[in-house]
Amino acid sequence: MDDKRWIELAKRRKQDKYFGIISLLIALMMVFFTLKNIGWLLTFIVVAVILYYWIDVEQMLEDSKAINRTQKIIFIILGIVYELTSIVFAFINLDYLLLAFGIISAGYLGFKTNAVFRKDLKNKKLKFGESIVAICLGLGSAIVLILLTPKDILWLFLLIFALAYNLIHLIVRIKVEHDGTNREL
């Protein structure tokens, strides 16, 4: 192996150590929240999922080399602002936290749908512009849905956004594992 590959492996090991420590802290916090109050646990899970969405999008764009340093910094700042806003919503009103979760889930669904089709079906790298358009389409559809839907059935639609990605991801993964990738799409 060349030196570049070894350096990359060393960075990954260091990241894996940090993520292991973070995972352990999260597990301990979840045990505390479960013993203290199940509502806190659910709130913590929603906030953690919102954070996961931002990290996953940033990592996928970085792995595809679709994001430069300036874009990455802007993306991280936006993620921090959104996460802090979600944490504030957790203490003010859980309805706002769930709205934030539904909106970010729709944006994540748009991004992951683009990523699954581009990476898994077409075997191409992600592009920053296309990814941002996919995220904005997801966010826009969620915001329009929030504005037009009566409050009593709004949670049903936001749940659909949150779960639709899992269905699309599962179908494409099964297809890719069963048939392989189709380079002609």
In short:
By secondary structure, this protein is an all-alpha fold.
Strand content: under 5%
Number of strands: 0
Q: Which spans have pLDDT < 50 for at least 5 consecutive residues?
A: none
Please give the alpha-carbon distance between the first and last residues: 34 Å
- Pattern of helices and strands: HHHHHH
Separate helix tally: 6
The quaternary structure here is single chain
**What's the gyration radius in Å?**
18 Å
pLDDT average, as an integer? 76
Helix content range of the residues, please?
Answer: over 70%
* Total individual domains: 2
Structural class: mainly alpha
Major β-sheet profile:
none
Shape: globular
Describe the structure.
With 185 residues, the protein is mainly alpha-helical. It has two domains: 1-35; 37-177, no CATH class. Helices cover 88% and strands 0% of the residues. The protein has six helices and no strands. The chain has helices spanning 3-36, 38-63, 69-92, 94-121, 128-148, 151-179. The model has no long low-confidence stretch (mean pLDDT 76).
Mind sketching the topology for me?
Blueprint: H1 3-36, H2 38-63, H3 69-92, H4 94-121, H5 128-148, H6 151-179
Key terms:
mainly alpha; globular; oxidoreductase; 185 residues; single chain
